[in-house]
From TrEMBL:
<keyword id="KW-0521">NADP</keyword>
<feature type="domain" description="Pyrroline-5-carboxylate reductase dimerisation">
    <location>
        <begin position="169"/>
        <end position="270"/>
    </location>
</feature>
<dbReference type="InterPro" id="IPR000304">
    <property type="entry name" value="Pyrroline-COOH_reductase"/>
</dbReference>
<dbReference type="GO" id="GO:0055129">
    <property type="term" value="P:L-proline biosynthetic process"/>
</dbReference>
<dbReference type="InterPro" id="IPR036291">
    <property type="entry name" value="NAD(P)-bd_dom_sf"/>
</dbReference>
<dbReference type="InterPro" id="IPR008927">
    <property type="entry name" value="6-PGluconate_DH-like_C_sf"/>
</dbReference>
<dbReference type="Pfam" id="PF14748">
    <property type="entry name" value="P5CR_dimer"/>
</dbReference>
<feature type="domain" description="Pyrroline-5-carboxylate reductase catalytic N-terminal">
    <location>
        <begin position="8"/>
        <end position="103"/>
    </location>
</feature>
<comment type="pathway">
    <text>Amino-acid biosynthesis; L-proline biosynthesis; L-proline from L-glutamate 5-semialdehyde: step 1/1.</text>
</comment>
<protein>
    <submittedName>
        <fullName>Pyrroline-5-carboxylate reductase</fullName>
        <ecNumber>1.5.1.2</ecNumber>
    </submittedName>
</protein>
<keyword id="KW-0963">Cytoplasm</keyword>
<comment type="similarity">
    <text>Belongs to the pyrroline-5-carboxylate reductase family.</text>
</comment>
<dbReference type="Pfam" id="PF03807">
    <property type="entry name" value="F420_oxidored"/>
</dbReference>
<dbReference type="InterPro" id="IPR029036">
    <property type="entry name" value="P5CR_dimer"/>
</dbReference>
<keyword id="KW-0028">Amino-acid biosynthesis</keyword>
<keyword id="KW-0641">Proline biosynthesis</keyword>
<dbReference type="GO" id="GO:0004735">
    <property type="term" value="F:pyrroline-5-carboxylate reductase activity"/>
</dbReference>
Length: 276
């Protein structure tokens, strides 16, 4: 079984998510010589080369070599064209293909590449850009146990990852963690705005909001108590927190959140249908 640091990895696409993964792999002990990347954008290639020292190419098939893993890091709108373009190169390598394109189902990738290709569909989120991402994973029947471990090692280089046992659950992952950062940003935005209206300076409101969000997340991760218990411990009878939570409840916050995640889940399903 190959170690993570023995792999050859080819990135097809060298945008923000790809360069985040490249940086994460280098921190895990990869050498730049183990990684190549292709992208038609000269600026993106320049970033990957100058910042990380990896070889880059303007043509997706140029110097393709025999990678162990091919990471499709392109926009969903062009992934069909890109997958068809590299299909022969992939077929000659027996490489594991990892897709980070939102809304693109395994069956589509199998049609564009080959139905015997080992493919993992992933759904990362933007905190991966700073190494704090959360990624959902789903594998087709051709992915081996070893390739599952390799996928975990790659995606865990920018945060955490979890497998789901059915592809439709990637839509749920999209609604929860894929879109989730925007929910927290919006909540923080409203907290900060209200604090300013109540008298705090924008700088103080921003710093307190950010640290409260960060500290709460870390506490939730490290505490033996579940989230409900942590909330209850903060909520004193007839206190300020209880007043705020009662206001949330009277405005049906739980239902609002449920409707929002359901809308995101439904949209993810529809986007997959649109791409087909």
């Amino acid at each position: 079984m190959k170690k993570l640091t023995d792999l050859k990895v080819r990135f097809v696409g060298a945008g923000n998510m790809a360069t985040s993964l490249i940086g994460g792999l280098l921190k895990r002990g990869f050498l730049p010589s183990q990684i190549t990347a292709s992208d038609p954008g000269g600026h993106q290639r320049q970033i990957a080369t100058e910042k990380f020292g990896v070889q880059t190419f303007g043509d997706n098939n140029s110097h393709f070599g025999i990678p162990d893993v091919v990471i499709l890091a392109v926009k969903p709108q062009i992934i069909q064209q890109v997958a068809l373009d590299i299909s022969n190169s992939v077929a000659e390598t027996n490489a594991l293909v990892i897709s980070i394109a939102a809304g693109i189902k395994i069956e589509h990738l199998e049609q564009w590449l080959a139905d015997d290709t080992a493919i993992v569909r992933t759904m990362p989120n933007t905190p991966a850009l700073i190494g704090e991402g959360a990624t959902g994973l789903f594998a087709n029947k051709n992915v081996t146990k070893q390739q599952r471990h390799l996928t975990e090692g790659i995606m865990d280089s920018v945060g955490i990852s979890h497998w789901v046992d059915a592809e439709f659950k990637i839509d749920v992952v999209t609604a929860l963690s894929g879109s989730g950062p925007a929910y927290f940003f919006l909540f923080m935005e409203y907290m900060q705005k209200t604090a300013i209206e109540l008298g705090l300076s924008p700088e103080v409101a921003a710093r307190l909001t950010e640290q409260t969000a960060l500290g709460s997340a870390i506490l939730a991760q490290r505490s033996a108590d579940d989230i409900t218990m942590l909330r209850q411990k903060v909520t004193s009878p007839n206190g300020t927190t209880e007043a705020a939570l009662k206001s949330f409840d009277s405005n049906h916050l739980e239902q609002v959140i449920k409707q929002a995640l359901t809308a995101a889940n439904d949209r993810s399903i529809q986007l997959s249908k649109d791409f087909s």
